[in-house]
Design brief:
CATH superfamily of the largest domain in chain A: Glycosidases
Helix content of chain A: 25-40%
Number of strands of chain A: 32
Oligomer: homodimer
CATH class of the largest domain in chain A: Alpha Beta
Strand order of the largest sheet of chain A: 20-19-18-13-12-11-22-21
CATH topology of the largest domain in chain A: TIM Barrel
Strand content of chain A: 15-25%
Radius of gyration of chain A: 31 Å
Number of domains of chain A: 4
Structural class of chain A: alpha/beta
Chain lengths: ~675, ~675
């Protein structure tokens, strides 16, 4: 038998949103109104009342907002989250004895029953509340206390029956009682549900990745951090807001790889930035060939001036000459012959990389050291991290590490670069990664794209997993891009920029449409920037720079593209054409996108629009304003024609504009 | 930072079946193999191993069975539950270092790499296991210990490289290591998942409800418990296995209701059995007009002889003259005028009923007293209870009460008579009710029936909610039965008996097709047995007795009708015809049901059968053997004709029989 609470009759269950029953946090961003639903009910027919309780984690008092009943025992409420960090919510519900009495009292009076005893019951309930209020004292309650004491007298007056009509009509008493009636035998929800609130860029961001050493304007020397700084206006002019740099640390010399991943580097070969650590230092050092810490500080500062921020790549692995290998040999796995275990995927060997051994007995020191890498760069002004292969480090480490960092720095964002099996990618999202790489790169057909975006945006996955769509990365040049060339680069760019609120471009190879693989059937670039220095001609004809600029402008001007709710796909009778829309909750703003997935042929078809969902009058025409071409088309009814040529521009990004009637009876589009 | 377990890398999540993350038990029955799935993975690429752990609750040691990997980090296992009661399961998973080594070793050897160091690594792993085994001692391990020590020598032999092919081919080492390798840094699942195992009748039962006082063969006197005993052969002959009696306790005299719920009873009126308690006693007494405790004991005993059991109706409410009203006035709500609050649904008053006040400060004594009512009748041999209006008593009470009783009496079954909102009905299922009344009574169209049965059998609801379909009850004579008459009685009987594994009949009014309501628009029977004594002519022409007998026989002979898995609806081009099948997991046994929902017209249509799901050869004909009429039809291909007349029999219950070729090249149906 429960020691207490045997008198608590209210049940609270079915809380949403939640992740794994409250084990993990739901993701939100600053400024959101968190919409919460819960099932609440009790035995019998009494009236219930309840509150949503919420607070920033660590605060001692809860804020409350009333739960509003919907149908079938579903209750709703919402709360604002105005600062980044951990928030939490829960619920309390109770039998509202006065409201129950009042409901029944009105029915009895309507049925002209004798209500003498019922008036006394009401008086008793008011009397209990008066006593409860008196115990609380507080002058702010004085007036309500007097009013309630007055009501108590009126209800218990032997003459009260002659005033029942007035008593029924008065709304003051129910209001007073709702405010002050003690919450007798209240039920507290068994779980406190966590919410991870990121700043807005956690939800809405446009990333641009570039190799600093390829940023030199001078073909005779490699690029530096100062060259990156000089490149800022270019990147900013396109509208990106996160400039992400592959690792900038000293590159190992032992087993250094040559161009195209050659097993042996030549004397002048720069090596892979992911082979981290050399005599000059490890994860908190800067490769001397890129510049100094002062240069880096200047870059971070300068980026801010363009409303951009620098994201660093954190890859927890070491080159054989990383200082940790000498300082902390126990953090690596020793082989029976005394050597250190390098990375392998048998029969492949990666002798330039030593993985960390998280099973070391010295794991606590290792965890601290890794966390300190983040803290070091945070102190240098970095607030966005792209984490390399997080799925090859233990999940408990990430859960601890991300929480540790967020505790002091709730504005730091983490992007998980995990291209692996779905549940693993999901788990990293649950553990606190702000954003995640996705399978977008390998989702190319209409069917694949539709199914995948619906999974990401319209299932529970959306509660913990924020997708960041990349059409390519230094590691992945998909066959579609290789074969489709520029039309496919345009199509995939439009898809990435409009399907999800966060996307990223690996430039300049993307805007310059690099599409040559190292060999047939490979997803690796020929002469990949991972292993050698490049110089890019950014003014090359055919650059997608202006399309990127347009897309980022459209994204900034349309809030519906800054979130992933209200995505909808629209049927079109051509498998090469994909049509979808994103809209605001009230459908006031609708962006309708059509993309031709065929890089060779012009494709056309009839698309079906859900006029009702779009709040469009079926009797009135509406305007499709192509924000890319500037063209405006007048459409009628649900079924309309679309034709897209891959050469010109294989996409429409329409703003749908409704007719509005003006004072002068003249029609125009809003 | 976690105090320990920082080295544990395996993640266990996504357990199913489960109810609310393990807060409530999943339901199974004795003899079931509980099929469990779980997501298990770790960082990196190591091989994992894990076990499902299970036990009867209260046992100190777990039994284990290995988890078998399926695709995408899904692992499966099952365990048998051979006794009723509470069971529980959880999981442990770990990195299988030896299996990881072995997998990589085979790859290295295949790639003809130098494996000298790898052999030593393998020897180290074997050596650790040898030490681990030595610590455990135990002579049963001696032989394995010797073998492993031998392997350790072979792997560390400087000459081992010349034997790699033999080492690779040998399966003895991996088997030995899988058995004995220590589970280093294992992860235990965070939750222990409960399972409620009922005896088989919890899942598969056919109920027959009857009023004892209407069981008299002599029209000049009311029936008694002895008359019920005399009626046992009749009920048993129809194949029912639970005989459920409305309350048999003394009926209150104050405010007793007359026939058709008349406000005042006449001097000879027997009153409603649900107005429980009078001078003769309360919930543990027997109404003197029905007989004695000795009679009851005899009845319980006699029923067993027919493989039936008696179910009692437990209605926790009191007539004003119930002994508890005097003995425990604090268990009732007092009104300001000193009277006791009777039941109300304003403006309706039920002055013959006092509800119990579960908010009483004396709630612990009240809870104990109510539990003791069950225990009293359990001591008298009753193992099945139909609980009246459980949703008007607090949910925490039921959770405690059902658990308390099950602890000592795991074979007791409870049927929840809650006709209320869905989440409340579900909650009672979650709290431990073995079976539940449903909305079946109000689901009449093909669309309604399809949607409802799919919800009950093919969603998570099936984990905790066992539906019991009743075409009518003493409280509910649905308009469809009133209007449709005998054809509808037949159709609804077939639906109830074949859609779910448990169903119930309120007889004799059902087999005699009573269909007159007390007034138009009411679901109450005219001259309801609730308020007066009846005498039934069981041999009346048109009785559905033989159809009931047939259906219960078919149910007993076909295991697929004894469970709710593998229900499937089949498209037929006529809205008045509903077609569905139930089958065994391997489709060896298929029952295909077609029902005409139209009580007036013959209906026909073409039904579409899923030949592949049914494991039917599309090139071969198959036989539809109607188990009701005995007719056998030969069908070909997926699309076949059905015609059903409401007058004759508005249903087919087909056993599908495949062709089988015999030795003599003669074809027949199995």
């Amino acid at each position: 038998m429960p020691a207490e609470n045997g008198q608590s009759r209210v049940v609270i269950e079915g809380v949403r949103p939640q992740v794994d029953g409250g084990r993990f946090a739901v993701k939100q961003t600053v400024g959101d109104l968190v919409q919460v639903q819960v099932d609440m009910f009790a035995d019998g027919h009494d009236v219930l009342a309840g509150v949503l309780m919420y607070r920033k984690s660590g605060e001692s008092t809860w804020q409350e907002t009333p739960l509003i009943p919907d149908v079938n025992d579903l209750w709703e409420a919402s709360f604002p989250v105005d600062t980044p960090g951990n928030w939490e919510f829960t619920f309390t519900g109770w039998i509202d004895r006065f409201a129950s009495w009042h409901r029944d009292f009105l029915k009895r009076v309507a049925a002209e029953q004798d209500v003498r005893v019922d008036l006394l019951t009401g008086a008793e309930l008011v009397s209990e509340t008066v006593e409860h209020l008196r115990e609380q004292a507080g002058s702010s309650l004085e007036q309500d206390l007097e009013r309630l004491a007055d009501w108590q007298r009126r209800l218990s007056d032997s003459n009260a029956t002659s005033h029942v009509t007035r008593i029924c009509a008065d709304t003051g008493l129910p209001r007073l009682m709702a405010r002050h009636c003690p919450r007798e035998f209240a039920t507290r929800c068994e779980t406190i549900y966590p919410v991870q609130v990121d700043r807005e860029r956690g939800r809405f961001s446009a990333w641009y990745e570039m190799f600093p050493r390829s940023a030199s304007p001078d073909p005779s020397r490699p690029g530096t951090l100062r060259d990156v700084q000089a490149r800022l206006p270019y990147v900013a002019s396109m509208g990106f807001d996160v400039l992400y740099l592959p690792p900038i640390h000293p590159i190992g010399r032992q087993f250094r790889k040559g161009p195209n991943n050659a097993e042996k580097a030549g004397p002048g070969d720069p090596g892979s930035p992911w082979a981290i650590g050399a005599a000059e230092g490890g994860h908190t050092a800067i490769a001397p060939e890129l510049g100094t810490l002062a240069d880096f500080r200047q870059l971070v500062q300068a980026a801010r001036g363009y409303d951009m921020e620098i994201a660093l790549d954190i890859a927890f692995q070491c080159a054989p000459d990383h200082p940790w290998v000498r300082q902390h040999p126990q953090w690596f796995r020793a082989r029976p012959d005394g050597t250190i275990q390098y990375a392998e995927n048998p029969p492949k060997k990666y002798q330039d990389i030593y993985p960390l051994n998280f099973e070391t007995d010295d794991w606590q020191a290792l965890w601290n050291a890794l966390r300190d890498v983040f803290l070091y760069w945070i102190r240098e002004g970095v607030k966005v991290f792209r984490v390399d292969n997080p799925h090859t480090k233990p999940f408990p480490f990430w859960e601890w590490c991300l929480a540790e960092i967020r505790r002091e720095h709730p504005d730091v964002l983490f992007l998980a670069e995990a291209f692996t099996r779905p549940k693993i990618m999901h788990r990293l999202g649950k553990l606190g990664y702000s954003q995640s790489y996705t399978y977008f790169t390998w989702r190319n057909t209409k069917e694949e794209l539709t199914e995948y975006l619906e999974e990401l945006t319209q299932t529970d996955v959306a509660n913990f997993y924020r997708p960041n769509f990349w059409p390519s990365t230094p590691d992945i040049l998909h066959a579609e891009l290789q074969l489709g060339g520029r039309p496919t680069f345009m199509a995939r760019l439009v898809l990435a920029a409009t399907m999800t609120a966060s996307y990223g471009i690996y430039g300049p190879p993307y805007e310059l449409c690099w599409n040559t693989p190292v060999k047939e059937g490979s997803e690796e670039f020929l002469n990949s920037e991972k292993y050698q220095v490049h110089h890019h001609d950014l003014d090359q004809p055919g650059s997608l720079r202006s399309l990127m600029t347009q897309l980022n402008t459209i994204r900034k001007e349309h809030q519906c593209l800054q979130r992933n709710e209200f995505v909808q796909f629209h049927p079109i009778d051509n498998d090469q054409l994909i049509c979808y829309s994103k809209r605001s909750a009230d459908a006031a703003e609708i962006i309708f996108v059509a993309v031709n997935l065929d890089p060779v042929h012009t494709q056309s078809g009839f698309v079906e629009l859900p006029l009702e969902d779009f709040d469009l009058d079926p009797q009135q025409s509406y305007q499709m304003h192509d924000l890319l071409s500037g063209a405006r088309y007048v459409w009628n009814g649900p079924r309309n024609y679309i034709e897209l040529s891959p050469e010109v521009l294989p996409a429409h990004v329409f703003r749908i504009r409704r007719q509005v009637r003006t004072e002068r009876d003249f029609e125009y589009y809003e």
